Amino acid sequence: MTDKKTLFIDGKEVEFSNEPNLLEVIRKAGMNVPTFCYRPDLTSFGACRMCVVEIEGRGIQSSCTMPPEPGLKIHLNTERTRRIRRTVLELLLANHDKNCLTCEKSGNCELQQYAEEYGIRKIRYPEKQLDEYLPIDDSSPSIVRDPNKCILCGACVRACTEFQGHSVLGFANRGSKTLVQPMNGRPLGQVDCVNCGQCAAVCPTGALTIKSDVEKVWSEITNPNKTVVVQMAPATRVAIGEMFGLEPGENSIGKMNAALRRIGFNYIFDTNFSADLTIMEEATEFLGRLKSGNNLPLFTSCCPAWVKYLEDRHPDMLHHLSSCKSPMSMLSPVLAEFLPKQINISRDNLVIVGIMPCTAKKYECKRPELSKNGRPDTDYVLTTQELGRMIKEAGINFNAIDPEKADSPYGEYSGAGTIFGASGGVAEAAVRTAYEFATSEPLENVDIKQLRGTSNRCRDIELDLKGTKLTVRVVSTLKEAEKSIQEIKSGKAKFQMLEVMACPGGCINGGGQPRSYDDSKIKEERAQGLYKEDAELSLRKSHFNPSIRKLYNEYLQEPNSHKAHELLHTIYKDKFTGSYKDV
Q1: Greatest extent of the chain over all pairs of C-alpha atoms, in Å
Q2: Dihedral over alpha carbons 200, 498, 240, 106 (to 10 degrees)
Q3: How far apart are CA 391 and CA 259, in angstroms?
Q4: Could you say which residues of the chain have pLDDT below 70?
Q5: Last residue of a domain, one of 160, 191, 210
Q6: Is residue 88 part of a domain?
Q7: Are residues 329 and 221 in the same domain?
Q8: Which of 4, 181, 331, 373 is the most core-located residue (most Cβ within 10 A)?
Q9: Do 227 and 375 have their domain in common?
């Protein structure tokens, strides 16, 4: 006989088990209370006081910090709790920039939402005067910080610390002068922010938003002299539909292709193609290092936030980093090299746009190493959120539009390219190819489920390449990556490959994806959408992609060739000495 634990919510008996707090029990029971500061994947903070409930014998308590106990009698909407929430809202609004119509978060702002739900029409407290407003910080290539819209919930501070171990943002001053800002009040673009965008992802208001390039891209599309091409990353296809009411994880790649053509892009390509290309290069590079014993473990290099973190914090470890460019930064130079000849235009009139789940890609496309003759390989990066807004602005009925295919030859891909968007996907795709390159035998079971998972924990798998034993490690978040770095530095590391994605769960939970911070299950559903497509494709290994084979046969010759290195590889810079580390 099991001991059933129950409590009472508004008179209804509710069972609970291992929920960490009353708020999760309330939500599990199909009810809710408002909150600004609580995020399931972050520690409870209890800062905003919006989630207060009244407990018989205990009085007013914040539901996000109080653990459940058997027999508690909880009331969600008493006169006291409603009065407290309304007071909190009025105080926040009195100190808030209320130019909602022109705010990036308008329609998706929790303060706006709760003010409407609680019928706040008048504010009893003195409002902030114009001379009290602080300047907007747009120094970052990825994030815009507006301190006038900050409600001091602390979610961004915790995300930066708990996900990345970085503490770029923190609280400054005291009392009514309290602010959230980078160290010493410096602009965000002048501190060692890695541009991951997780701060903006958890921000409930417009205090931290994605730096938009939408108008610049519209200008290029409407310029009759420009040919504008687009590539989209794996993770975007299982999240874009959420902006139009579809379920998380639903694969909308066909609708994306069609919508991008309606918007006016001239050619539609798929970053999955260059994910396959990345595997050809990275798997070959890994086997070469394994044979020589040099620069092991190999670090994956697809995540620009991870690359910047190494440059800023561990430049002595840059020689471990794969020299392969990311899939986005591989496809762009391929397009720049071959497309002008194929469609008879000049490179000057070709505009290359990436649709990415990642705000750090905006930083990546501006790296001087990823340009040629002073021209960036990727001209602009739009996040999934920005594309969603463009689709709406263009008046496209996303749910009704018929699916279309990408253009060839840079739109063909394998399942291995698809799973790049989930944590563990790069390593799994690399193993599928590396195993067959090393053994000349088919890998029968390509589903390497030990590498999968959306938690931030470390995952290891041991492999046997015809007698050569090796271990592959997968981590997401830079806080977890730091632990692996310290293992290497202490001589305790037993792994030969390390896959790192800075965002929790990988690119499916990138800073540019639609809102997911209030439901930790969403990233798992998105990941499953990618694995579903992988399982349904006839091609599941990168080296069997016929378009990839054709590219090597006609130009690149073989993986890691001199031509491949010129186009697909790069070097990284020690930010302390200014010297480049040739990996």
Answers
A1: 78
A2: 0
A3: 7
A4: 1-2, 575-583
A5: 210
A6: no
A7: yes
A8: 331
A9: yes
Within this chain, do residues 206 and 219 fall inside the same structural domain, yes or no? Answer: no
Q: Which of 507, 516, 541, 581 is catalytic?
A: 507
Please identify which of the residues 302, 324, 365, 503 carries the catalytic annotation: 302
Domain assignment of residue 87, yes or no: no
Residue 364 appears among annotated catalytic residues: yes
Which residues in 360-369 are b (16+ Cβ under 10 Å) and which e? bbbbbbebee
Instruction: Let me know: does 89 contact 120? Beta carbons within 8 Å.
Output: yes
Active site residue 337: no
Nearest to 493 by CA among 479, 478, 482, 505: 482
Verify that 130 and 259 share a domain, yes or no: no
Q: Are residues 206 and 222 in the same domain?
A: no
Of 54, 104, 285, 412, the active-site residue reads: 285
Annotation says 285 is catalytic: yes
* Active-site option among 110, 220, 281, 364: 364
What DSSP string describes 440-469?
A: SS--S----GGG--SSSS-EEEEEEETTEE
Q: Does the predicted model carry a pTM greater than 0.85? A: yes
The residue from 282, 428, 482, 525 that is catalytic is 282
Q: Of 301, 322, 326, 329, which is the active-site residue?
A: 322
Q: Which of 211, 361, 523, 581 is catalytic?
A: 361
Burial of 480 (0-12, 13-18, 19+ CB in 10 A): buried
ω into 315 cis (within 30 of 0): no
Residue 322 bears catalytic tag = yes
Same domain for 14 and 137? no
Q: Which one from 69, 369, 393, 558 is the annotated catalytic residue?
A: 369
The residue range of the domain holding 477 is: 215-581
- Exposure string of 322-345, with b = 16+ CB inside 10 Å and e = fewer, is bbbbbbbbbbbbbbbebbbeeeee
- Asked, for residue 571, whether it belongs to a domain, the answer is yes
Q: How many domains does the chain have?
A: 3
Going by their DSSP bridges, the two strands 580-581 and 5-9 should be labelled as unpaired
pLDDT tens digits, 313-364: 999 999 999 999 999 999 999 999 999 999 999 999 999 999 999 999 999 9
pLDDT in tens, 70-100: 999 999 999 999 999 999 999 999 999 988 9
How many CB atoms within 10 Å of residue 514?
Answer: 20
Q: Is the peptide bond before 297 cis (omega within 30 degrees of 0)?
A: yes
d(CA 105, CA 38): 18
The question of whether 51 is a catalytic residue gets the answer no
Q: Both 389 and 517 in a single domain?
A: yes
Is 393 among the residues known to form the active site? no
C-beta of residue 212 within 8 angstroms of C-beta of residue 104: yes
- Show the CA angle centred on residue 213, arms to residues 379 and 276, nearest 5°: 50
End-to-end Cα, the chain, rounded Å: 61
